[in-house]
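pinging the channel bc i need a second pair of eyes. not urgent but kinda urgent?? the chain im working w is below, pasted from the shared doc
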Amino acid sequence: MAKPNLQQVHDDLRELAYEAGHMMRAANPSTVTSGSKKNSVDLVTETDQAVERMVSKRLRSRYPDYDFLGEETYQPGMKLGTGPTFVVDPVDGTVNFVHGNPYVSISLALCVDKRPVVGIVYNPFTDMLYSAIKGRGSYLNGKTRLPLRPNPPPLTAGLCQALVAVEWGSDRSGNNWDVKLKTFRNLGEQGKGMVHSLRSLGSAALNFCAVAAGSFDIYWEAGCWVWDVAAGWLILEEAGGLVADSNPGGWSPTLDGRRYLAVRACEGGRGQKEIVKELWTLVEGRFDYDG
């Protein structure tokens, strides 16, 4: 198989993102018309399914030898392989989508050897497109290099001066839910993390991009899937950010491991690892998500 032409893949994914965005803007979803998967907060709409069908058909036609892993066609047991694989979340932030909240995106990535090499995240409601090609940096709308501040400040002050993104997720009981709730409290409590604030905006892909841009300092997450993070992971790394495991001690998380701790760039990496270690001391328990 020929080596992927990353620029061509990037351009094709960008074109598909804009087309998907048109479909999303033209839709009129609601909590009444949406369906659910495993529970009442794990939503799916006709638009999720239609966008994935469109993207899958187009990519399979253009790249017949590549694999495809999408949220809406995923079946238990499917794994991210080592060959070229398109990883797609057609509507990331479906709960926002059905409520008319504009924090919604499509996430498109090409992965090789289980690592993202091209990533596109597009919010059609704000017309903000984040993109990256491995080794070539990451950009907002193809022109503005990320992070948005050319010399982002160090993170040496620690969590007490950090804006941290977290998400509730759709698992609302059991060990993983308990770990989240206890850790949220530890992050916010005076005398412990005392972060500037916690933000829960509803799209893992856009949260990764916000860390890449420098709008968030940290994003601590567990329970989402490879299609939620593949593109954003690359966009963050190409902006100088770092990805660790949301469970303490893990410096080499896997793309499909469902546990992520994203940290923004800073000059010379000053404070990145230190703030990860500080956050790990506040994680109460350990996540045990299955792939």
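so The helical segments are 6-26, 46-62, 94-99, 174-188, 204-213, 226-238, 272-280. and The mean pLDDT is 94. — does that match what u expected or am i reading it wrong
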